[in-house]
Amino acid sequence: MDTLLSSLEILARWDVILALVVGSVGGVLIGAIPGVGPAVAIAILLPATFSMDPIVGLTVLLGIYGSSMYGGAIPAVLINTPGTAVNALTTYDGFPMTARGEPRRALSLAYSSSFFGGIFSVICLMLLAPVLAKVAPLFGSREIFLAALLGIILVIVAHRGQSLIAGALAGFGIFIQTIGLEPVKYSKRFTFDQAFLSSGIDLIVVVLGLFALSQAFLLLTSDDEKIRTMKLRGGLFQGFRELMRHPRVAGVSASFGVMMGMIPGVGEFTAQFLSYTYAQKTSKRPQDFGHGSSEGLIAAETSNNAVPAAAMVPLLALGIPGEALTAMMLSVFYVHNVVPGPGLFQNSMDFIMALYLALLILNVLVVVFLLVATRPLIQVVKIPNRFLGICVLTLSFVGVYSLRNSATDCVIAAVFGIIGYILKRLSLPIVPIILGMVLGNIMEVKLRAGMARVKEPFDFIDRPVAMILFLAILAVLAIHFRHVLQDRKSLKEAEWQSKHRSTRFGALLFCRKGSLSRARGRKVKARHSTSYRRSTERD
Amino acid sequence: MQSERERRFPGPRRGQLLFAVALLFFSVLLLSQIPGQTRWVARTDFFAQPRFWPAVGLIAMTVFGGLHLYLLPWRRFRHADGTEARKWATVVEYAAWFMGYVFAVPVIGYLPSTLIFVPLLARRLGYRSGRMMLASVLFGLATVVLFKGFLSVKIPGGMVYDYLPGAIRSFFILNF
Question: Which of B46, B77, B108 is the last residue of a domain?
């Protein structure tokens, strides 16, 4: 109770309240504009938050993160274009509802589901915080190294079908963070005797390049689309009543969101996939899914909005970001010398509770704002793509240049902007680069510290948490390789277009090796005996 | 006709081979530079060597990049790859616009360069109407006022501001 009161005290400041309002309204606006998304907005605003108190800066960024998905549902439902990437599943059932003349019902259901997901996850985590506070101190250098390694492996394997390129890009991220002066031995690494590389490549410069500039380039080279929106009539409260009729789907989807959010590298997409599949399998009308099913919409929106709060858990408890947005937030902590990790949970529980409370208030603010302002908000989707590109390019300048007033940083950001543009054109993942940079740095520091007391390799995993993490890594790898083999088998089957022939021909041959070689031996023996007889006959 | 392997590939075909080859070439090139660009320190643990983590990153890039190239369903460049490469080159122009803006700010100041850059780029992209020009000017003004005036982000005043009279000069340096 004392913690709760002191966390309320942290939030009871005019600048925090302003940050809550700006974050929630700004996040909804950004989410509602297709092609911008929270990553771009957070990357641009990041340097501006460095001059603020950590709680203020983090509240703005959390506000954008948490509320953008609400806004993203608007274009997903009305024009079949997801405002943010995680609203893609919302279009499956949201737009068919609009097409049959129920846009108000779809939007209202999306808002209420998002609200439920957001509130559910915050309450779960507030209840879970004391447990986390007990578990977090069990994490030493070795455990944090293994957790970071698990995070990077999860990020790679989560890109199913693209794991190899995700691994290569994560390696690229690990390599980039090593450029510059090595902090312990003070030796230069890949500086090519260039002074500007001695201080290394800043994470924020890379983030701005890969997310903001690349998006600006993508918008600038795209075409403007004519968008027709529907007029909304009537109130938006009916969704709450409808949501109450599906407590099971909402509850399970929110739980999936919380669980997947807490695992580094997994995030919204897996949570949505699991929730949607569950909702479809347990529904009385599974045939409606993808054609305007209310349960489908609830599953998609509840699970994605339950993730942001949960994603803060590995960041706050271990200092390990699970995805790109929390990786950006990590730099806000570092700038203010607040080190997220076990120590923060032990010493600043009120700060953590304040962040969760901020998220709780934020969800209420966003829903109130949306219920009032949805109609005028629909107009923002009409902003032309290329003009939006100009806006993002102009704002990216603020982000990059205000860091160190360095034109070199801007050149580096522009180069990463082009790399990000190419990756986006090829539909290749960007997130592994960022997480490679952040987790690579954590792994380097923690492995050095952890190995100092290790005499034999087994010593590294002799503590319970380390052993659990090590087994988790092995399990993830085993599951991934099983999936790879299954995919390979199904590919072979599809290539052959029929299943009458075995797809495990090599394995079958191996099993029948004995009988095949016996049969072969009999054949050879028979041939030899025949030829012997023939030769005798001639004589 | 598309093969099953091509159909299952996530993402478009154009440019994939080019990117995979470039990535592998870049990785091998950097990996070959490891002896010259990193140091092996005597009496230091293997995992604490300054060379260890660059090697981890580059080996991961090379091995995974190589496997990605090996498993790509395409082995030959097509006309579409060239077209895609030209598309990539078009963004260099916008990167140059961005760099022009970056170099203009310390000389002519944040507000004037933004008020020139945004409408000029809008014109370059084909927006000619008065409404869009007004929107671009207003957007530029709002950006400068919000970030420099309100949020006080660290962007230096332009050199031309030095020619302004005393009080106005400091006002401009602080806010625009």
Answer: B77
Within this chain, do residues B13 and B61 fall inside the same structural domain, yes or no? yes
Tell me the residue ranges of DSSP E strands in A274-345. Answer: none
A353, A360 contact by CB (below 8 A): no
Question: Hey, what are A76's tokens?
Answer: 């997903």
Whole-angstrom Cα distance, residue A455 to residue B171?
Answer: 63
Is B137 part of a structural domain of the chain? Answer: yes
Span A385-436, pLDDT tens digits: 889 899 889 988 888 888 888 899 999 999 999 999 999 999 998 889 988 9
H/E stretch holding B102: helix B79-108
CB of B48 within 8 Å of a chain A CB? The answer is: yes
Whole-number Å distance between alpha carbons of A200 and A191: 8
Complex ipTM tops 0.85:
yes
Same domain flag for B60 and B10: yes
Decide if A167 touches B, using CB distance below 8 A: yes
Does B63 lie in the same domain as B10?
A: yes
Provide the domain limits for residue B38: 4-77
Q: What is the pLDDT of residues A127-172, one digit of tens each?
A: 887 787 788 788 888 888 898 898 889 888 888 888 999 999 999 9
Give me the helix-helix angle, A54-78 and A294-318, nearest 10°: 160
B74 touches chain A (CB under 8 A): no
